[in-house]
Amino acid sequence: MRRGVLVSGLCGTVALTIAGAVAKGADGALSALAGALLSFVVLLLGLLAISAVVAGDPGASMAGAGLVFMGQLIILVAAIALLRQQPSLDGPVIAAAAIVEVVLIQVGQLRGYVRARHAIDPQAGRA
User: Fold this and answer.
1) Residue 123 backbone phi and psi in degrees, to 5
2) How much is the pTM?
3) How many domains does the chain contain in total?
4) Which is deepest, 34, 39, 52, 59, by most CB within 10 Å?
5) What integer pLDDT is reported at residue 23 of this predicted model?
6) What parts of the sequence cross the membrane (predicted)?
7) Is 27 inside any structural domain?
8) Alpha-carbon distance values, 27 to 24, 34, 47, 83 (Å)
């Protein structure tokens, strides 16, 4: 999963920065880079936090993962709101790049999860 997030996040950041440059010039490139990089860092740290939560108590893993996900969303929205107030950055470009980056990273994360090996409990099904 980490590889999927890294690959999709890095490729998405580069592609969105180029798209921002084509659409709005240097300010657009900087704005797209800020939005994409923000999403990339927050979601990567969230993945590491979810990995730590899942490695802990199995009974609390779903609640902990949900809490991490909600925390990621709150941090992203707050950071985007702060970035949009910067006069040198283009707010709509930041928001669009952040949204597209989140979708790309989620696709990479899902693809990594589907391809991962999952432990099977040999005791399952026995009474």
Assistant:
1) -90, -5
2) 0.81
3) 1
4) 39
5) 93
6) 33-55, 62-83, 89-107
7) yes
8) 6, 10, 30, 13
